[in-house]
Design a protein that fits this description.
3-stranded antiparallel β-sheet, 134 residues, Jelly Rolls, single chain, 5-stranded antiparallel β-sheet, mainly beta, 42% strand
Length: 134
């Protein structure tokens, strides 16, 4: 990491910077192994960030799949997050390079609290300046 990048990262993490944020949508999502709401296609949530909080763990399968990077340049990576630790959250930006989907359950019912956040934070709208200029 270049010195300029380190300084920008540290300044954004530890300065007196404050951003305004408000929830644009909060709901409980129910996945069940025997319904059409068992999974979703890859998508973005349409705001700056999403908090996905696991509310239970008495199911098998499920979780979240992410597709990150740029497929046109052969840099796309896929990875799976089990997301079955009750009370734990997955927090993700909603940028074109961070699409995600719910993974089908094998058995049981999964509940998750979803909090979609909108913010005025310019950094959430495409990343730090050094990423955009390279």
């Amino acid at each position: 990491m270049k010195e300029k990048e380190k300084k920008e990262l540290l300044a954004s993490l530890y300065s007196d910077y404050r951003a305004y944020a408000e929830p644009s949508l909060i709901f409980v999502l129910k996945y069940a192994d025997n319904t059409k709401y068992n999974t979703f296609k890859y998508h973005l949530d349409g705001a700056s960030y999403t908090y996905n909080i696991a509310l239970n763990n008495d199911f098998t399968g499920g979780g979240l799949d992410y597709r990150m990077g740029n497929r046109y340049f052969g840099e796309e990576k896929e990875f799976h997050v089990p997301h079955n630790r009750t009370g734990w959250a997955v927090i993700q930006p909603n940028r074109p390079l961070h699409v995600h989907r719910g993974v089908p359950l094998e058995s049981g019912t999964r509940y998750a609290m979803i909090n979609i956040i909108e913010t005025n934070d310019a950094g959430s709208k495409g990343g730090p300046a050094w990423i955009m200029s390279s």
